[in-house]
Amino acid sequence: MVTPARVVIGLCLVAPFVAMLWVGSYAKTDPVLIGIPFFYWYQMLWVIISTALTMVAYKLWQRDQRDRATRSEDGGASK
C-alpha cells in the first residue's frame, strides 16, 4: 500500500543516490571552502545529509509500522 509517509521515505533514500550519480553537477573546483575544492566538500556534505535523510526515513518507517500494527489490532478487535 502506497502512503504519503512511504513516498517520503522513498524520496529520502533515493535523493543521495541521485545527487552522487549526477557527477556533472559537482565536477568542478569552484567555489572553494576553507581551501577545499567544491568537488570534495560537496561529497562530504552529502555524507551528513545522507545520514540525516536515512534517520528521517527510519523514524517515518517506525511510525508507519506502529500505525499499521495499531490499525490491524483495531480491525481485529471489531470483528
UniProtKB/TrEMBL annotation:
This protein's UniProt keywords: Membrane, Transmembrane, Transmembrane helix
One Pfam family from the record: DUF3311
Record field: transmembrane: 7-27, 39-61
PANTHER family found in the cross-reference section: BSL5891 PROTEIN
Protein name (record): DUF3311 domain-containing protein
UniProt source species: Streptomyces thermoalcalitolerans
